[in-house]
Amino acid sequence: EQAWNYLSQLADSMAGEDISQKVAGLITDVEMPKMDGLNLTNRVRSHPVLKNVPVVIFSSLISRDNDKKGEQVGAHAQISKPRFDELTDTLRSLISQ
Q1: DSSP string covering 44-80, please?
Q2: In angstroms, what CA-CA distances link 76 with 6, 51, 54?
Q3: Helix, strand or coil, per DSSP, at residue 22
Q4: E strand or H helix at 28, and its extent?
Q5: Of 58, 59, 41, nearest to 50 (Cα)?
Q6: Tens of pLDDT, residues 70-93
Q7: pTM of the shown model
Q8: Dihedral of the CA atoms 90, 47, 74, 77 (nearest 10)?
Q9: Mind listing the pLDDT tens digit for each residue in 16-43?
C-alpha cells in the first residue's frame, strides 16, 4: 500500500513529465502487508502515467496459478526467489527497452 501511495502521488505530481526519469522499474512480491503484489501490479497497469513502468514479480510463491494471475494483471516478468541474477538481468533488459 505504501508503494502504491508513493507511486500514485509521484505520478500525479509529474504533470506530463516522463515517469521513467523517476521510476525505471518496479519489483514486487506476491505477499505483502495491506496490498499484495498482484493488486499493486494491476493498479500500476491501470494508471495512465504508470502503465508503462516495467513490473517484475519476485516471489517464492511462483506457481502456475500465480503465474497466470501475474500475466492477467500485466506483470512483465515473474521470477522465483532467490534467483537474483535472473532478476537483475531481466530488469536491466526491461529498462533498456
Answers
A1: HHHSTTTTTS-EEEEETT--HHHHHHHHHHT-SEEEE
A2: 21, 11, 6
A3: coil
A4: strand 26-28
A5: 41
A6: 999 999 999 999 999 999 999 999
A7: 0.89
A8: 10
A9: 788 998 999 999 999 988 999 999 999 9
**Rounded CA separation 92/96 (Å):** 6
Q: What share of the chain is helix, strand, coil (3-state, %, to 5)?
A: 50, 10, 40
What's the CA dihedral at 91, 76, 78, 56 to 10 degrees? 50
Could you tell me whether strands 26-28 and 55-59 are parallel, antiparallel, or unpaired per DSSP bridges?
A: parallel
Rounded CA gap, 45 and 64, in Å?
A: 21
The identity of residue 3, as a single letter, is: A
Half-sphere exposure of residue 73, counting CA atoms within 13 Å on the CB side? 24
